[in-house]
Amino acid sequence: MSKSCALVIIGRMASQTRLSLSVTGATPRLVTTDLIVLPVFVDDAGADLAQWNDASGGELARLRGNQEIRGKLYETHWLHVDDANWRCRRVLVMGAGPRNQLTLERTRRLATAAGLLARRQRIGRLALVQRGPLDRQACAQALAEGLVLASFQTDPYKTRERDQGALREAAIIADGEEKSVTAAAERGVVLGEATNLARGLSNEPSNLLTPRSFAERAHELLANRGLAIDVLDESRIQELGMGLMAGVSRGSVEPPCVLVVRYTPPETVSDAVLGLVGKGVTFDTGGVSIKPADGMDKMKHDMAGGASVLAALHAVAQLQPPVSVVGVIPATENMVGGRAIKPGDVLRSATGKTVEVLNTDAEGRLILADALWYARELGATHLVDVATLTGACVVALGRTTSGLFGQPASWVELVRETGEHAGDRLWPMPLFEDYTELLESEIADLQNIGGRAAGAITAAAFLKEFTGGLPWAHLDIAGTAWADDATPYQPKGATGVAVRTLAELTLTSGRFPATT
Ligand code: BES
Ligand code: MN
Ligand code: ZN
Fold first, then answer.
1. What are the pLDDT digits (tens) for 285-298?
2. Residue nearest to ligand 1 atom 9, measured at CA
3. Nearest protein CA to atom 13 of ligand 1, as residue
4. CA geometry: angle at 455 spanning 515 and 344, to 5°?
């Protein structure tokens, strides 16, 4: 075996099927496809339903009349088109809830649910009718995102037959064919694909996604897209004085690295530089403060924040926003071993602040602290970090909402609003000085844990010490990055949370708060 030959157990995951998506203004009768999905509301009085009723020989009205189709969210009903003048003879009526309760996120989820249903029937080509009261562009974007999300392959290592077919071709049937609607759908495809990219990376087992292979994947995904990629290796990490990053990685035989990705816009409108920092722990055993065995396998997704940052930059390269972006992803394993850091050890951060490590399982904040510093070194003026940081955040907010922390309020609110629009629910949490006091160490500047109470907040308070007073938002995605249970719109596994929020945030640079 040659010296550089790693132990390869199985090959890299199968590549995802790419969905080709179009927008058509054609009348549904003339759309060539294998399935048309028609959303219907509980209180649907749309005059456009008449053509569907006629096509089905009055079946739609009958089913609605006898309450078989009620329009309840995700309710489904297959309709056959009798009229031989229709090119597609199969219709799936999908409940969309009350008309005035339709949101962009519901729209996105309905599209995903429809796409996943088609895949279970091994239907690879479908068209979705755009209906409802929402802004047509925003709605088309959400539908496109949802459809692309449905095309995600969740079982890349299954060698026998898959449970689901591949989604190859989708169309959105919009009334009218304006360029703006098509452009919105194209944006949706970019954001959906980026989300899937992050999901794929987070689902990867840690033997196949080590810090180094994470860096290789970043190169493959981002090269030739007008982005500058730089990978800091172990010696560079040492040289820069990133002692917290170096400390966490000591227990592993896999060398750490810091991925740095830079986007420079063709035309800069503002001086702002958005710094995106993502936790990239490719496996978190807890280190010497080891985690219980039950559920430890999930800790392969402790790099979900890093994956979100990488994927957001993949989208940014295509969206070409008018603001500079720098992504910093500290990538390491957190392992047990003879060289591993131990509880009570003191490390020195790149800022010069010293940290007493009282629990080696609170490693995310350590590597993020050095990464936040590095983002500032590279000129970031506004910071956002994303991390599967604390179990306490899962206790506080559950599995649907990420914790949002930061300063000033205007920056935090912009991030929250952007998340709402993008379909990532974020909720603001307090960061009073009292919490920072809980991090006072007996022998160093800071200790890395603040006790059981308010665990998500003390973790954020720790990060705050390394933000240099810049506008900064921290997203704790410990509860939202992974779905333990499948829903009609989200299969088990990585969710790709925060990708679209980060990417969309670059499109709001006109509203970034001023820094002085
Ligand atoms: N990666 C974990 C947090 C986590 C928990 C992510 C559950 C996803 C799901 C993090 O590194 C961690 O271990 N945090 C500790 C902090 C504690 C030691 C202060 C935790 O939450 O228990
Ligand atoms: Mn940990
Ligand atoms: Zn962790």
1. 999 999 999 999 99
2. 478
3. 361
4. 100
